[in-house]
């Protein structure tokens, strides 16, 4: 098995509304995203991507386009968190992303995985596999979704 991993970082605000401690407060993180792809290196002399599973710059560009640009400097809010949604709605032109689940590291990792899977796997036909998405919420805390994980929702 041959994999590559690209790391991207973005800033976003969130809160965990039901949390019994600090995380119910509005706060933010510098999230770190690790994208791991499996595949065979492209073999074509003279091609820019010769020897690569996917050019790291393409891994970044696709993630930026389809996910990171939407979440960066946004507030990620759970759709049922009405007080915060109303507050955010009162701010003119505020960048808000409403999610269908609470913005924990686990849920963000699952959303990122589901969003990016088709993006990468459609890029080179069936040759690429999105193996895992890892999201660090802090340097000490992260969640990971792997291709073998079962989404039990
Ligand atoms: N399983 C989860 N637990 C927690 C989540 C989460 O998404 N999934 N999120 C939070 C908080 O939002 C916050 O991101 C974590 O804060 P904290 O535990 O304080 O993390 P630190 O790395 O800053 O912890 P230190 O103890 O200061 O190292 C909480 N739990
Ligand atoms: Zn947090």
Automatic annotation (TrEMBL):
Respond yes or no to whether keyword GTP-binding is given for this record: no
Query: What cofactor does this protein call for?
Result: Zn(2+)
EC code:
4.1.2.50
| Reaction(s) catalysed by this chain's protein | 7,8-dihydroneopterin 3'-triphosphate + H2O = 6-carboxy-5,6,7,8-tetrahydropterin + triphosphate + acetaldehyde + 2 H(+)
Q: Name one GO molecular function term.
A: 6-carboxytetrahydropterin synthase activity
Superkingdom, natural source: Bacteria
- Give the UniProt keywords, A-Z: Lyase, Metal-binding, Zinc
User: Is Lyase found in the keyword set?
Assistant: yes
This entry's comment on the bound cofactor is:
Binds 1 zinc ion per subunit.
| InterPro entries from the UniProt entry | 6-PTP_synth/QueD, 6-PTP_synth/QueD_sf
User: Pathway, per UniProt?
Assistant: Purine metabolism; 7-cyano-7-deazaguanine biosynthesis
- Per the Swiss-Prot or TrEMBL record, the active site comprises 23, 73, 137
Question: Where is Zn(2+) annotated to bind?
Answer: 14, 27, 29
Q: Which NCBIfam families match?
A: queuosine_QueD
Q: Which PANTHER family match?
A: 6-PYRUVOYL TETRAHYDROBIOPTERIN SYNTHASE, PYRUVOYL TETRAHYDROBIOPTERIN SYNTHASE
Q: Which family does it belong to?
A: Belongs to the PTPS family. QueD subfamily.
What name does the UniProt record give this protein?
6-carboxy-5,6,7,8-tetrahydropterin synthase
- Supply the source organism for this entry: Oxalobacter formigenes OXCC13
Q: What is the lineage of its organism?
A: Bacteria, Pseudomonadati, Pseudomonadota, Betaproteobacteria, Burkholderiales
């Amino acid at each position: 098995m041959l994999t590559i991993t690209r790391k991207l970082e973005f800033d976003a605000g969130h809160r965990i509304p039901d949390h019994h401690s600090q995380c119910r407060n509005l706060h933010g993180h510098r999230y770190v995203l690790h994208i791991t792809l499996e595949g065979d290196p492209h073999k074509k002399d003279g091609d820019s991507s010769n020897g690569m599973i996917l050019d790291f710059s393409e891994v970044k560009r696709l993630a930026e386009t389809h996910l990171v640009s939407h979440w960066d400097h946004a507030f990620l809010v759970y759709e049922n968190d009405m007080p915060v949604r109303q507050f955010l709605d009162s701010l003119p032109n505020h960048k808000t992303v409403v999610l269908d689940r609470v913005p924990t590291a686990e849920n963000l990792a699952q959303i990122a995985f589901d969003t990016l899977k088709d993006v990468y796997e459609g890029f080179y036909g069936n040759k690429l596999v999105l193996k895992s998405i890892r999201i660090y919420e802090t340097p000490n805390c992260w969640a990971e979704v792997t291709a073998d994980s079962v989404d039990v929702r």
